[in-house]
Automatic annotation (TrEMBL):
It holds the Pfam family Ig_VWDE. Keywords: Disulfide bond, Signal. One of its GO terms (molecular function) is signaling receptor binding. The keyword Signal applies. It comes from Loxia leucoptera (White-winged crossbill). This is VWDE protein.
């Protein structure tokens, strides 16, 4: 009977006396007489390799391990392996069952972005898979993440090709559900630089700011890779007495004197005005560019 037990261990985060713990629960209820459970906690130390953290034998249908910042840290992927057995009858034991790996720390959704220089805002969700603890009575009950961007060695060196809607986000305590215990949002927009500089890659970094909790102080979340797809841009010209070339390549001359609307965007607050004055002689009337104003 024990060999066919379906224990189905699952890891969930929990605050126990103000400290972050992981709980391994398993079901269904064991058969009579009472069955013991051997619970092995481990963390992913390198791809495909696990490092044992803690082992215990219990009659309870659950087991706890504390995220102490030493044996178990933020950024770890954690597993619990459960075996049921009857004490004194070692042959009567179930097959060991693994839980799914639980990633403890900050997640970005999506984990990477590919956007274009089209002015659109893209929502990036920042969430914590572990609960936010309140360090003290007078300390703020939140984790502040400082956000920054960096260019990743594109063909044309320069500032990052993305801008953020905020320089920092606050993760506030909340109920844990669906792998999220706290969440915030930030929008990412590609810089429209009017330069044919090819596709560029930037990264977004998040760092806990002035965290009192030792668990967060030494933690560095994974970066988010943002690829910006370069889009071709159009140019328009007005030069000399004025010859005008439009964005779509149409050419004409304008010899009128006065102030004119040269270009206006229908989607954003952007206008260019041009002023033309009489620069001809008494023999001919000619208008020339003499001023420009842009908003």
């Amino acid at each position: 009977k024990l060999a066919s037990l379906a224990l189905q261990p699952v890891i969930t985060p929990e605050l126990v006396q103000g400290r972050v713990h992981l709980k391994c629960s398993y079901s269904p209820a064991p058969p009579e007489p009472p069955v013991h459970f051997r619970v092995l906690w481990s963390r992913l130390s390198s791809p495909g390799k696990r490092e044992q953290i803690q082992q215990e034998t219990t009659l309870q249908p659950f087991s706890y391990v504390e995220m102490d910042g030493a044996n178990l840290r933020l950024g770890d992927t954690v597993f619990c392996t459960v075996t049921a057995f009857r004490r004194g009858s070692p042959e009567q034991q179930s097959l060991p069952e693994d839980s799914k790996g639980f990633y403890a720390g900050i997640k970005f959704l999506p984990e990477s972005l590919e956007i274009a220089e089209d002015g659109k805002e893209h929502v990036l969700t920042v969430l914590s898979t572990v609960p936010i603890a309140c360090p003290g009575q007078h300390d703020p009950c939140k984790i502040t993440l400082q956000l920054s961007t960096e260019d990743l060695g594109s063909q044309v060196p320069g500032p990052p090709d993305i801008i953020l809607s905020a320089c920092q986000v606050d993760l506030l305590p909340g109920l844990c559900s669906e792998s999220s215990c706290a969440a915030a949002r930030v929008t990412v927009t590609a810089v429209t630089d009017f330069a044919q500089d090819g596709n560029r890659v930037s990264r977004l970094r998040a760092r806990p700011a002035a965290a009192r909790d030792v668990l967060w102080r030494a933690y560095t979340p994974r970066d988010v890779k943002v690829t910006v797809r370069d889009l071709p841009t159009g140019n328009c010209y007005s030069f000399t007495d004025p010859h005008i070339i439009t964005f779509d390549g149409w050419r004409y001359d304008s010899h009128k004197i006065g102030t004119f609307l040269l270009s206006r965007s229908e989607s954003r607050a952007f206008e260019v005005h041009v002023r033309q004055w009489d620069c001809g002689s008494h023999r001919s009337t000619t208008a020339c560019n003499c001023g420009v104003a842009a908003r």
